[in-house]
Amino acid sequence: MYSRTMLKVRTLSNNLKMYGSTSSNFVNVSVNDKSGVAIVTMQREPVNSLNLELITQLKTALSDLERNKCRGMILTSASKSVFSAGLDIMEMYKPNQERVRNFWLSLQDLWMTLYGCSYPSVAAINGHSPAGGCLLSMSCEYRIMLPNFTIGLNETKLGIIAPSWFVATMKNTIGFRKAEMALTLGFLFTTEEALKVGLIDEVASSKEDAIAKADKFIGQFAKIPPQPRTISKLMLRSKDIETLRKTKEQDLQAFLQVVNDPKTQKGLELYLESLKQRKA
Ligand SMILES: CC/C=C\C/C=C\C/C=C\C/C=C/C(=O)SCCNC(=O)CCNC(=O)[C@H](O)C(C)(C)COP(=O)(O)OP(=O)(O)OC[C@H]1O[C@@H](n2cnc3c(N)ncnc32)[C@H](O)[C@@H]1OP(=O)(O)O
Which of 56, 129, 169, 215 could form a disulfide with 133, with the two C-beta atoms 3.0–4.6 Å apart? Predict the structure, then answer.
């Protein structure tokens, strides 16, 4: 039913080529011919950490879906155990200044595109989803997660602060009080805990079940005229999108200041080591 790559993800734009990147395909888009619903699969092994290329390709895929008037979008992962490990720490560790700038601006763009897309969006969370992975999930309208994984904004545990638009997205998803607790603790919720707190909407028994449930959620909008649907969604979401649009440069400078702080660099080094040691 879902035909692979009917909507082709464009290869990297020229401005990325100057960093010597290869145009690997980190995003697969398949569209159900009957329903017009697209499945967008992140496929950057091993953990879908969000580097500049994955972020750019996701943004391109979502914008293409918008242009092609898709009926709905399901965001998922090709991995069996990780939805997304969040931002690629290697983009922030000893960064090339021009690339890290592009990285952050592209992440802002991706969030504004996903959070404000007109089509119904569902995250089929088939693996762990910390930090930036949680942001992507929360930016969708509906979340379905498989058991025995974790999700949350764990930034404070890493000694860093989630940007204001990450915070706004969580507040809009689970409410002020629960967001305050989750953010200050850097809490990673298990699937069951996430369901209880409203961070996810349903639990699925398998990826196939998650896709079926996502299709069902999106199917409800077949009877709703698209324009009132989109306007209602944007009435709720556009304030936070506009806030970031207006403060993009300020937000970038705040990020660059943190990333370039020697203390952050030391912290990143230790964190990378700890990730590697967990395996040993
Ligand atoms: C830290 C940022 C500092 C400064 C930024 C300034 C301001 C704040 C800006 C933004 C907020 C930040 C948002 C983020 O998203 S930061 C990223 C947070 N992510 C995490 O903490 C998750 C870390 N990863 C894990 O917990 C596990 O990998 C996971 C549970 C996802 C999967 O576990 P599994 O056992 O399946 O795999 P691993 O063996 O752990 O990993 C495989 C491989 O991948 C590497 N890896 C994992 N996560 C990342 C990552 N986020 N970035 C880069 N690389 C990652 C891991 O080291 C392994 O590598 P290797 O040993 O070479 O195989």
Answer: 129
